Amino acid sequence: MDITTMVFVLALGNLALCAALFFFEFGSRKAPSLSTWAISRQCQAAGWLLLYFRGSGVAPDLVSIPIGYGLLFAGVALEAGSLWEVAGRPRWRRYVYPLLGASIAAFLACYAIDQIGLRVVASSLILGGFYLLGAAALALGWRNGSMLRRFLVVSLALLSLLVAARAILALTMPGGWGWISNALVQALSSGAFVLLMLLTAFGYLLLSREQLQQELERLEMTDPLTDAPNRRGFFNLLAPWMALARRPGQPTAVVLLDLDQFKRINDGYGHPAGDVVLRTMVDTCKRQLRDSDILGRMAGVEFALLLPRTDLLDALLVSERIRRAIEATPVKTERAIIKMTASFGVTTIRPEDTTVSLFQRADEALRAAKQGGRNKVVQAVTPVVPEAWVPPAS
What's 309's DSSP letter? Predict the structure, then answer.
Protein backbone atom coordinates (compact mmCIF):
# COMPACT_ATOMS: atom_id res chain seq x y z
CA MET A 1 0.00 0.00 0.00
CA ASP A 2 1.53 3.31 -1.08
CA ILE A 3 1.42 6.39 1.13
CA THR A 4 -1.36 8.11 -0.83
CA THR A 5 -3.66 5.08 -0.61
CA MET A 6 -2.89 4.64 3.08
CA VAL A 7 -3.78 8.27 3.83
CA PHE A 8 -7.02 7.88 1.87
CA VAL A 9 -7.92 4.70 3.76
CA LEU A 10 -7.27 6.42 7.10
CA ALA A 11 -9.40 9.41 6.09
CA LEU A 12 -12.32 7.22 4.96
CA GLY A 13 -12.01 4.95 7.99
CA ASN A 14 -12.20 7.82 10.43
CA LEU A 15 -15.10 9.39 8.51
CA ALA A 16 -16.98 6.09 8.66
CA LEU A 17 -16.39 5.85 12.41
CA CYS A 18 -17.64 9.43 12.88
CA ALA A 19 -20.80 8.68 10.91
CA ALA A 20 -21.51 5.42 12.76
CA LEU A 21 -20.96 7.07 16.13
CA PHE A 22 -23.18 10.04 15.20
CA PHE A 23 -26.16 7.85 14.34
CA PHE A 24 -25.54 5.48 17.24
CA GLU A 25 -25.64 8.32 19.79
CA PHE A 26 -28.17 10.49 17.93
CA GLY A 27 -30.56 12.19 20.34
CA SER A 28 -28.95 10.77 23.48
CA ARG A 29 -26.67 12.37 26.02
CA LYS A 30 -23.05 11.38 25.52
CA ALA A 31 -20.57 10.66 28.27
CA PRO A 32 -17.70 13.21 28.44
CA SER A 33 -15.13 10.64 27.37
CA LEU A 34 -17.27 9.57 24.38
CA SER A 35 -17.74 13.19 23.28
CA THR A 36 -13.98 13.74 23.44
CA TRP A 37 -13.38 10.54 21.50
CA ALA A 38 -15.89 11.56 18.80
CA ILE A 39 -14.19 14.96 18.39
CA SER A 40 -10.81 13.24 18.16
CA ARG A 41 -12.08 11.08 15.29
CA GLN A 42 -13.43 14.13 13.47
CA CYS A 43 -10.08 15.89 13.80
CA GLN A 44 -8.21 12.84 12.52
CA ALA A 45 -10.58 12.44 9.57
CA ALA A 46 -10.17 16.12 8.60
CA GLY A 47 -6.40 15.92 9.05
CA TRP A 48 -5.96 12.83 6.87
CA LEU A 49 -8.23 14.33 4.17
CA LEU A 50 -6.15 17.50 4.02
CA LEU A 51 -2.97 15.46 3.77
CA TYR A 52 -4.51 13.34 1.01
CA PHE A 53 -5.35 16.42 -1.08
CA ARG A 54 -1.98 18.11 -0.62
CA GLY A 55 -0.27 18.98 -3.87
CA SER A 56 -3.42 18.21 -5.88
CA GLY A 57 -4.53 21.78 -6.41
CA VAL A 58 -7.45 21.39 -4.01
CA ALA A 59 -5.39 22.60 -1.08
CA PRO A 60 -1.84 24.04 -1.42
CA ASP A 61 0.95 22.48 0.63
CA LEU A 62 1.40 25.62 2.72
CA VAL A 63 -2.19 25.14 3.94
CA SER A 64 -2.82 21.40 3.84
CA ILE A 65 0.40 20.23 5.53
CA PRO A 66 0.52 22.52 8.62
CA ILE A 67 -3.24 22.44 9.20
CA GLY A 68 -3.54 18.75 8.31
CA TYR A 69 -0.80 17.67 10.72
CA GLY A 70 -2.12 20.07 13.37
CA LEU A 71 -5.57 18.46 13.18
CA LEU A 72 -3.97 15.03 13.21
CA PHE A 73 -1.95 15.82 16.33
CA ALA A 74 -5.04 17.26 18.01
CA GLY A 75 -7.08 14.17 17.12
CA VAL A 76 -4.57 11.70 18.51
CA ALA A 77 -4.01 13.85 21.61
CA LEU A 78 -7.78 14.03 22.28
CA GLU A 79 -8.03 10.30 21.73
CA ALA A 80 -5.41 9.77 24.41
CA GLY A 81 -7.32 12.23 26.61
CA SER A 82 -10.55 10.25 26.23
CA LEU A 83 -8.71 7.15 27.45
CA TRP A 84 -7.45 9.11 30.47
CA GLU A 85 -11.06 10.18 31.07
CA VAL A 86 -12.13 6.52 31.05
CA ALA A 87 -9.28 5.76 33.47
CA GLY A 88 -10.78 8.24 35.96
CA ARG A 89 -8.34 11.12 35.35
CA PRO A 90 -10.58 14.07 34.40
CA ARG A 91 -7.74 16.60 34.78
CA TRP A 92 -5.90 15.33 31.71
CA ARG A 93 -6.59 18.57 29.82
CA ARG A 94 -4.22 20.65 31.97
CA TYR A 95 -1.36 18.41 30.82
CA VAL A 96 -2.36 17.30 27.31
CA TYR A 97 -3.33 20.72 25.93
CA PRO A 98 0.03 22.39 26.73
CA LEU A 99 1.81 19.32 25.37
CA LEU A 100 -0.28 19.51 22.19
CA GLY A 101 0.50 23.20 21.77
CA ALA A 102 4.22 22.58 22.21
CA SER A 103 4.10 19.67 19.75
CA ILE A 104 2.40 21.74 17.05
CA ALA A 105 4.90 24.58 17.58
CA ALA A 106 7.83 22.13 17.31
CA PHE A 107 6.41 20.61 14.12
CA LEU A 108 5.91 24.04 12.50
CA ALA A 109 9.50 24.94 13.38
CA CYS A 110 10.80 21.71 11.82
CA TYR A 111 8.60 22.27 8.76
CA ALA A 112 9.97 25.79 8.32
CA ILE A 113 13.58 24.57 8.57
CA ASP A 114 13.32 21.41 6.46
CA GLN A 115 10.00 20.75 4.73
CA ILE A 116 10.54 17.00 4.24
CA GLY A 117 13.19 15.44 6.48
CA LEU A 118 12.52 17.07 9.83
CA ARG A 119 8.79 17.09 9.13
CA VAL A 120 8.75 13.28 8.94
CA VAL A 121 10.86 12.96 12.08
CA ALA A 122 8.75 15.39 14.08
CA SER A 123 5.39 13.97 12.98
CA SER A 124 6.42 10.37 13.70
CA LEU A 125 7.72 11.21 17.17
CA ILE A 126 4.67 13.33 18.07
CA LEU A 127 2.09 10.82 16.85
CA GLY A 128 3.92 7.88 18.40
CA GLY A 129 4.21 9.78 21.67
CA PHE A 130 0.51 10.60 21.86
CA TYR A 131 -0.48 7.04 21.01
CA LEU A 132 1.88 5.85 23.73
CA LEU A 133 0.21 8.30 26.12
CA GLY A 134 -3.12 6.60 25.42
CA ALA A 135 -1.58 3.19 26.10
CA ALA A 136 -0.26 4.52 29.42
CA ALA A 137 -3.82 5.53 30.41
CA LEU A 138 -5.06 1.98 29.83
CA ALA A 139 -2.07 0.58 31.70
CA LEU A 140 -3.25 2.24 34.93
CA GLY A 141 -5.80 -0.54 35.36
CA TRP A 142 -3.40 -3.36 34.45
CA ARG A 143 -3.49 -5.19 37.79
CA ASN A 144 -7.28 -5.50 37.97
CA GLY A 145 -7.89 -5.09 34.24
CA SER A 146 -9.46 -7.59 31.89
CA MET A 147 -7.57 -9.48 29.20
CA LEU A 148 -9.02 -7.05 26.64
CA ARG A 149 -7.48 -4.07 28.45
CA ARG A 150 -4.10 -5.82 28.73
CA PHE A 151 -4.15 -6.77 25.06
CA LEU A 152 -4.87 -3.18 24.10
CA VAL A 153 -2.06 -1.86 26.31
CA VAL A 154 0.54 -4.17 24.76
CA SER A 155 -0.71 -3.70 21.19
CA LEU A 156 -0.94 0.08 21.40
CA ALA A 157 2.49 0.34 23.00
CA LEU A 158 4.15 -1.79 20.32
CA LEU A 159 2.42 0.01 17.45
CA SER A 160 3.26 3.40 18.99
CA LEU A 161 6.92 2.45 19.14
CA LEU A 162 6.73 1.25 15.53
CA VAL A 163 5.38 4.66 14.46
CA ALA A 164 8.14 6.43 16.39
CA ALA A 165 10.78 4.00 14.99
CA ARG A 166 10.56 5.73 11.64
CA ALA A 167 11.78 8.95 13.22
CA ILE A 168 14.41 7.19 15.34
CA LEU A 169 15.85 5.39 12.30
CA ALA A 170 15.87 8.58 10.24
CA LEU A 171 17.77 10.39 12.99
CA THR A 172 20.30 7.70 13.85
CA MET A 173 20.80 5.86 10.53
CA PRO A 174 19.52 7.82 7.53
CA GLY A 175 20.62 5.10 5.12
CA GLY A 176 18.98 2.26 7.04
CA TRP A 177 20.52 -0.51 9.07
CA GLY A 178 21.29 -3.74 7.28
CA TRP A 179 18.15 -5.30 5.90
CA ILE A 180 16.02 -2.79 7.82
CA SER A 181 15.69 -0.08 5.20
CA ASN A 182 13.83 3.19 5.41
CA ALA A 183 11.32 1.86 2.89
CA LEU A 184 10.56 -1.16 5.09
CA VAL A 185 10.16 1.00 8.19
CA GLN A 186 7.91 3.36 6.24
CA ALA A 187 5.73 0.45 5.09
CA LEU A 188 5.50 -0.94 8.62
CA SER A 189 4.72 2.51 9.97
CA SER A 190 1.90 2.92 7.44
CA GLY A 191 0.45 -0.44 8.47
CA ALA A 192 0.78 0.57 12.10
CA PHE A 193 -1.37 3.68 11.49
CA VAL A 194 -4.14 1.53 10.00
CA LEU A 195 -3.96 -0.95 12.88
CA LEU A 196 -3.96 1.88 15.42
CA MET A 197 -7.09 3.33 13.83
CA LEU A 198 -8.88 -0.04 14.10
CA LEU A 199 -7.55 -0.97 17.55
CA THR A 200 -8.29 2.36 19.17
CA ALA A 201 -11.77 2.45 17.61
CA PHE A 202 -12.92 -1.06 18.41
CA GLY A 203 -10.89 -1.18 21.63
CA TYR A 204 -12.50 1.97 22.98
CA LEU A 205 -16.02 0.81 22.11
CA LEU A 206 -15.42 -2.66 23.58
CA LEU A 207 -13.96 -1.15 26.76
CA SER A 208 -16.99 1.14 27.07
CA ARG A 209 -19.29 -1.86 26.69
CA GLU A 210 -17.22 -3.79 29.24
CA GLN A 211 -17.48 -0.96 31.76
CA LEU A 212 -21.23 -0.67 31.15
CA GLN A 213 -21.65 -4.39 31.78
CA GLN A 214 -19.64 -4.16 34.99
CA GLU A 215 -21.79 -1.24 36.15
CA LEU A 216 -24.99 -3.16 35.42
CA GLU A 217 -23.67 -6.15 37.39
CA ARG A 218 -22.77 -3.82 40.26
CA LEU A 219 -26.24 -2.27 40.28
CA GLU A 220 -27.77 -5.74 40.49
CA MET A 221 -26.00 -6.20 43.82
CA THR A 222 -25.98 -2.63 45.17
CA ASP A 223 -28.63 -0.32 46.56
CA PRO A 224 -28.39 2.89 44.46
CA LEU A 225 -29.44 5.22 47.30
CA THR A 226 -27.02 4.13 50.02
CA ASP A 227 -24.37 2.38 47.86
CA ALA A 228 -24.61 -0.58 50.24
CA PRO A 229 -25.23 -4.18 49.09
CA ASN A 230 -28.89 -4.83 48.41
CA ARG A 231 -30.72 -7.96 49.57
CA ARG A 232 -29.33 -10.09 46.75
CA GLY A 233 -25.81 -8.74 47.20
CA PHE A 234 -25.90 -9.29 50.96
CA PHE A 235 -27.03 -12.90 50.61
CA ASN A 236 -24.23 -13.54 48.11
CA LEU A 237 -21.69 -12.19 50.61
CA LEU A 238 -23.32 -14.16 53.44
CA ALA A 239 -23.21 -17.54 51.65
CA PRO A 240 -19.54 -18.44 52.33
CA TRP A 241 -19.91 -17.54 56.02
CA MET A 242 -22.93 -19.83 56.26
CA ALA A 243 -20.77 -22.64 54.92
CA LEU A 244 -17.92 -21.85 57.33
CA ALA A 245 -20.32 -21.97 60.28
CA ARG A 246 -20.59 -25.74 59.78
CA ARG A 247 -16.92 -26.08 60.68
CA PRO A 248 -15.45 -25.52 64.14
CA GLY A 249 -13.95 -22.09 64.60
CA GLN A 250 -14.79 -18.52 65.52
CA PRO A 251 -18.49 -17.63 65.23
CA THR A 252 -19.97 -15.08 62.84
CA ALA A 253 -22.71 -12.69 63.94
CA VAL A 254 -25.65 -11.28 61.99
CA VAL A 255 -27.56 -8.19 63.14
CA LEU A 256 -30.85 -6.82 61.85
CA LEU A 257 -31.48 -3.13 62.48
CA ASP A 258 -34.48 -1.01 61.70
CA LEU A 259 -34.95 2.76 62.03
CA ASP A 260 -37.68 3.60 64.52
CA GLN A 261 -40.82 5.38 63.27
CA PHE A 262 -39.29 6.24 59.93
CA LYS A 263 -42.68 6.67 58.27
CA ARG A 264 -43.24 9.93 60.13
CA ILE A 265 -40.21 11.41 58.41
CA ASN A 266 -41.48 10.65 54.91
CA ASP A 267 -44.96 11.82 55.85
CA GLY A 268 -43.84 14.95 57.68
CA TYR A 269 -40.78 16.12 55.75
CA GLY A 270 -41.00 14.31 52.40
CA HIS A 271 -39.07 11.51 50.74
CA PRO A 272 -35.96 13.63 49.97
CA ALA A 273 -35.49 14.15 53.72
CA GLY A 274 -35.97 10.42 54.24
CA ASP A 275 -33.25 9.71 51.69
CA VAL A 276 -30.86 12.03 53.52
CA VAL A 277 -31.61 10.25 56.80
CA LEU A 278 -30.93 6.83 55.26
CA ARG A 279 -27.61 7.90 53.74
CA THR A 280 -26.53 9.52 57.01
CA MET A 281 -27.48 6.43 58.98
CA VAL A 282 -25.43 4.21 56.65
CA ASP A 283 -22.40 6.50 56.95
CA THR A 284 -22.77 6.51 60.74
CA CYS A 285 -22.86 2.72 60.84
CA LYS A 286 -19.84 2.33 58.57
CA ARG A 287 -17.76 4.54 60.84
CA GLN A 288 -18.35 2.06 63.67
CA LEU A 289 -17.50 -1.05 61.64
CA ARG A 290 -14.34 -2.80 60.56
CA ASP A 291 -13.33 -3.07 56.91
CA SER A 292 -14.30 -6.75 56.96
CA ASP A 293 -17.82 -6.04 58.27
CA ILE A 294 -20.66 -5.77 55.75
CA LEU A 295 -23.73 -3.54 55.93
CA GLY A 296 -26.57 -4.33 53.53
CA ARG A 297 -30.00 -2.85 52.87
CA MET A 298 -32.59 -5.61 53.03
CA ALA A 299 -35.82 -3.69 52.38
CA GLY A 300 -37.13 -0.23 53.15
CA VAL A 301 -35.44 0.91 56.37
CA GLU A 302 -34.35 -2.57 57.45
CA PHE A 303 -30.62 -3.22 57.25
CA ALA A 304 -28.45 -6.21 58.05
CA LEU A 305 -24.92 -6.42 59.44
CA LEU A 306 -22.55 -9.30 58.84
CA LEU A 307 -19.82 -9.38 61.47
CA PRO A 308 -17.27 -12.08 60.57
CA ARG A 309 -15.37 -13.79 63.40
CA THR A 310 -17.50 -12.08 66.03
CA ASP A 311 -19.19 -13.87 68.94
CA LEU A 312 -22.53 -12.90 70.41
CA LEU A 313 -21.11 -10.75 73.21
CA ASP A 314 -18.93 -8.70 70.85
CA ALA A 315 -21.83 -8.37 68.40
CA LEU A 316 -23.99 -6.95 71.19
CA LEU A 317 -21.25 -4.43 72.01
CA VAL A 318 -20.91 -3.40 68.36
CA SER A 319 -24.69 -3.02 68.02
CA GLU A 320 -24.88 -0.93 71.17
CA ARG A 321 -22.09 1.30 69.89
CA ILE A 322 -23.93 1.81 66.60
CA ARG A 323 -27.23 2.44 68.42
CA ARG A 324 -25.65 5.20 70.49
CA ALA A 325 -23.97 6.73 67.42
CA ILE A 326 -27.27 6.89 65.53
CA GLU A 327 -29.04 8.41 68.53
CA ALA A 328 -26.28 11.01 68.94
CA THR A 329 -26.20 12.01 65.25
CA PRO A 330 -28.99 14.45 64.32
CA VAL A 331 -29.58 14.66 60.57
CA LYS A 332 -29.74 18.12 59.02
CA THR A 333 -32.16 18.35 56.09
CA GLU A 334 -33.54 21.33 54.17
CA ARG A 335 -36.65 21.49 56.34
CA ALA A 336 -35.57 20.36 59.79
CA ILE A 337 -32.95 18.72 61.99
CA ILE A 338 -34.13 15.17 62.59
CA LYS A 339 -33.10 12.90 65.42
CA MET A 340 -33.27 9.18 64.81
CA THR A 341 -33.09 5.97 66.82
CA ALA A 342 -32.80 2.34 65.73
CA SER A 343 -33.67 -1.09 67.11
CA PHE A 344 -31.40 -4.13 66.78
CA GLY A 345 -31.83 -7.89 66.75
CA VAL A 346 -28.58 -9.83 67.24
CA THR A 347 -27.72 -13.48 66.65
CA THR A 348 -24.90 -15.72 65.49
CA ILE A 349 -24.82 -18.26 62.67
CA ARG A 350 -25.32 -21.84 63.87
CA PRO A 351 -24.10 -24.96 62.05
CA GLU A 352 -27.65 -26.13 61.32
CA ASP A 353 -28.84 -22.71 60.10
CA THR A 354 -30.33 -21.85 56.76
CA THR A 355 -30.80 -18.24 55.70
CA VAL A 356 -34.49 -18.62 56.56
CA SER A 357 -33.88 -19.83 60.12
CA LEU A 358 -31.05 -17.34 60.66
CA PHE A 359 -33.08 -14.29 59.65
CA GLN A 360 -36.20 -15.56 61.38
CA ARG A 361 -34.28 -15.69 64.64
CA ALA A 362 -32.75 -12.23 64.11
CA ASP A 363 -36.15 -10.83 63.10
CA GLU A 364 -37.76 -12.19 66.27
CA ALA A 365 -35.09 -10.40 68.31
CA LEU A 366 -35.72 -7.21 66.32
CA ARG A 367 -39.45 -7.41 66.97
CA ALA A 368 -38.74 -7.89 70.68
CA ALA A 369 -36.67 -4.70 70.61
CA LYS A 370 -39.52 -2.82 68.91
CA GLN A 371 -42.11 -4.15 71.35
CA GLY A 372 -39.84 -3.36 74.29
CA GLY A 373 -39.93 0.36 73.57
CA ARG A 374 -37.62 0.73 70.54
CA ASN A 375 -34.06 2.12 70.54
CA LYS A 376 -32.82 -1.15 72.04
CA VAL A 377 -30.44 -4.01 71.30
CA VAL A 378 -31.91 -7.48 71.88
CA GLN A 379 -30.19 -10.79 71.39
CA ALA A 380 -31.98 -13.78 69.91
CA VAL A 381 -33.25 -16.34 72.36
CA THR A 382 -30.90 -19.29 72.59
CA PRO A 383 -32.85 -22.54 72.72
CA VAL A 384 -32.36 -24.61 75.81
CA VAL A 385 -30.73 -27.92 74.99
CA PRO A 386 -32.26 -30.72 77.10
CA GLU A 387 -29.91 -32.78 79.19
CA ALA A 388 -29.11 -36.25 77.93
CA TRP A 389 -31.38 -38.88 79.37
CA VAL A 390 -29.62 -41.27 81.71
CA PRO A 391 -31.33 -44.57 82.41
CA PRO A 392 -31.89 -45.31 86.08
CA ALA A 393 -29.61 -47.72 87.76
CA SER A 394 -31.08 -51.19 88.17
Answer: T
Name the stretches of the chain with pLDDT < 70: 1-2, 24-30, 55-59, 115-117, 168-186, 382-394
H or E stretch covering 258 = strand 253-259
| Single pTM value for the model | 0.66
What residue ranges of the chain are covered by domains with CATH 3.30.70.270? Answer: 231-379
Q: CATH number of the domain at 3-221, out of 1.10.760, 2.40.40, 1.20.1070, 1.10.10?
A: 1.20.1070
DSSP bridge pairs for 307: 253
Q: List where CATH 1.20.1070 sits in the chain.
A: 3-221
CATH architecture of 231-379: 2-Layer Sandwich (3.30)
Q: What is the DSSP string of 324-386?
A: HHHHT-PEE-SS-EE---EEEEEEE--TT--HHHHHHHHHHHHHHHHHTTSS-EEEPPPPPPP
Taking only the tens place, the pLDDT of each residue in 212-229 is 888 888 888 888 888 899
List pLDDT tens digits, range 124-163. 889 999 999 999 988 987 888 888 889 989 999 998 888 8
Picking from 268, 263, 351, 255, the residue whose alpha carbon sits closest to that of residue 300 is 263
